Amino acid sequence: MKPQFFAAIHQICDEKNIPYERVMDTVKAALATAYKKDFGNKEQEIEILLQEDSDIATVLLIKEVVEEIENPNIEISLAEAQKMKKNVEVGDIIKIDVTPLEYGRIAAQSAKQVILQRLQEAERDATYEMFKNRENEIMSAQVMRVEGGNVYIQIEKHNVMLGPKDQISSEKYYNGRRMKVYLDRVVHTNKGPQLSISRTHPNLVVRLLEMEIPEIAEGEVEIKSIARDPGVRSKVSVWAEDDKIDPVGACIGQKGVRIQSVMSELAGERVDIIEWTKDPKEFIATALQPAKIAEVIIVSAGEEQGVRKRAAVFVEEEERPMAIGKRGQNVRLASDLTGYELDLYNLEQLPAFKEKLKELKSDKTTSRRIEDADLETVSAKKELEAAEKSIEEESDDSSKAKKKAKASEWGKLTKAVITKLEAAGYNSLEDLSGMDLKQLQDIEGIGKVSAEKILGEIS
User: Fold this and answer.
1) What is the 3-state secondary structure (H, E, C) of the chain?
2) pTM of the model
3) CATH superfamily of 402-458
4) Report for 54-68, 136-150, 179-193, 350-364: range of highest mean pLDDT
């Protein structure tokens, strides 16, 4: 083969980081297959020689010298072998040059196809290895085009699709936009490596905090848990072993500059930083901020298999909408952050709740002692549920009276509209004061007509 051929292969292997021997072995195998297909048969044993001082590849047919031929494809008689090479004996291996005159063109075409295929495979392998080692990291990306709900972005010259479920719904994507994405995982497929990227994954917030806050990156401040409603709000609990470090202050930064950088990258998503504490009661109360929590009672610590962590939270009635949050967002995120299923009660129900707990504690039929803050067994849980129902029934009369009084606070709104507002955590027109038409329409189930009516009542 011409020296330029070998030089070209060396150059390509260097550029693509592919082993030279690996490519040459594949080329030889392809040339042998091409010869068998066009000039020989599958049973033959072929060896290919590629020499820099030759214009074409040399094809050698390998046969064993035998006294009596059984398979002419792989065997040759002693007499025939001696015509080609003296001093040959039975059992020796002889190589016969069977290079066809037309083989130069076939060899070149086969070599080209094999090299191209090997380059594609090698590039896929290199891409997979490069990104596989960067799973769970943030990567810089640029939007190339938006098509049919999918956003096609480029990451380090590789095109990747960002599907609808991984997009922030309130975010606008347009050609040329630069942004950060979270690389969740990399999967090896026949079509090459598939990158699973996301803008909605909770770890995107974690990695952004690590980038912006040195104390987190250096391990002085630890992120304990995170709960996220992509594009709207996130709650992050942090903790520092060193008492001299304020974990919340470190994350927020002077005048909120650090947390603002994170929120800007998340299209204005609000990020609440909460200090983690070992005391679950205190942690739950902090997680439900900005609502003021009167008392928290741990119903189940979740230590027994099959029993979920559960807590009863008591608030003043005026704090209840804030504790629930818009469309139940605040209590839902607090529940995800703390790992507890949270049940909200009005503070006036607390005495009856505690009284029922005392009855459970002193009940001789209970299999073991039940502490106020530890009702973990399944039987205790069932009794507690019955107790809660009893408490609700006992306070039913007062609740009805309050609802009657509150009805006047809804003005001339229809029952259907009131139901939708209460489901969203709003219990009076006063809760809606200050909201404009667009904000009212953002409430689930409230259309433009209903929003205009509400606006008329609160104006």
Assistant:
1) CCHHHHHHHHHHHHHHCCCHHHHHHHHHHHHHHHHHHHCCCCCCEEEEECCCCCCCCEEEEEEEEECCCCCCCCEEEHHHHHHHCCCCCCCCEEEEECCCCCHHHHHHHHHHHHHHHHHHHHHHHHHHHHHHCCCCEEEEEEEEEEECCEEEEEECCEEEEECHHHCCCCCCCCCCCEEEEEEEEEEEECCEEEEEEECCCHHHHHHHHHHHCHHHHCCCCEEEEEEEECCCEEEEEEECCCCCCCHHHHHHCHHHHHHHHHHHHCCCCEEEEEECCCCHHHHHHHHCCCCCCCEEEEEECCCCCCCCCEEEEEECHHHHHHHHCHHHHHHHHHHHHHCCEEEEEEHHHHHHHHHHHHHHHHCCCCCCCCECCECCCHHHHHHHHHHHHHHHHHCHHHHHHHHHHHHHHHCCCCHHHHHHHHHCCCCCHHHHCCCCHHHHHCCCCCCHHHHHHHHHHHC
2) 0.60
3) 5' to 3' exonuclease, C-terminal subdomain (1.10.150.20)
4) 136-150
